[in-house]
Structure formats: C-alpha cells, structure tokens
Amino acid sequence: MNLTSARAIEKASVVAERKNKHIVFGIYKRNGRVYTEIVKNVQAKTLQRIIKGKVSFDSTVYTDGFRSYDSIVHLGYQKHFRIYHQESYGKGDVHINGIEGFWGYAKVRLVKFRGVSKNTFYLHLKECEFRFNYRNNDLYEILLKITRQIIFC
Length: 153
Known about the structure:
- β5, α2 and β6 form a beta-alpha-beta unit.
- Helix content is 37%, strand content 20%.
- Strands 1, 2, 3 and 4 form a four-stranded antiparallel beta sheet that branches. A two-stranded parallel sheet has the order 5-6. Strands 7-8 form a two-stranded antiparallel ribbon.
- With 153 residues, the protein is α+β, with helices and mostly antiparallel strands.
C-alpha cells in the first residue's frame, strides 16, 4: 500500500487562487485501487485518522518523506518505509508512482472542466477515483449494474 503526502489539487483553472484549492489525501493500494479524501489540513492527527480507517496494521506502507507520517510506526504500522523524491521515486517494484499516476490522471480530467465549483469538487474527485479504479473495466456495464440494483431493489 502506498500513501502520498496530501496534495493540493487545484480547481481546474489555469490560475487558481489559494482559497480555491482543496487539500486531497490519497491512498494507493497494490491492487491498483485508489482512495481519496478531502482534508482540512495535513497534520499528523488528520492523516492518521484516515490511515487507521483504511490501512490494516499488517500492511507494508510506503510513503514519501512528508513529516506527518513520522508517527505511523507509533500507531502500530511496523512496516513503514519512506521513498524520498530527492533520491528517486522508488527502487525496483517498491515505488510511489501509482499514486503519482492517479494525481496526474485526476488533474488532466479536471482541467477539461475549466473550473469546478467548490460545492461539486467532491463529486468530481470521487468520479475520478471511480474511473481510475475501474479503468480496465467496461464502465457502462458497471454503471448499468449499479443502476439496476438501485431501481429494482
């Protein structure tokens, strides 16, 4: 499982003011799935709450050098390794390129809208997450199945 430092994803406009940015925390699992959450800050306490809720204690966790991850071991994650961007993005099959790939995917997708309302950003983010997680599947079939379950329950 890979974590990345919380990142600011700009509203999809060329020039975004600081107040129009959201801080998004992302977790990338080795199965290629991503989980994202909008956070108010990147303090250790905030990120730890999400990590504890989404990552099992026996997982091997790879993070970048962001200092909010310093206390992960104290939470009970004994297999915590850091990948420092200054040195490289990974060694062999141990890397954080998966989550970096998602951030790139999300930014490209959001830029197409030339600005996303602050009120609907969460929905756009979760759509990016869904599309990324099911990128190798037929989205039409998945959405049709979900729709049938809702209508015919």
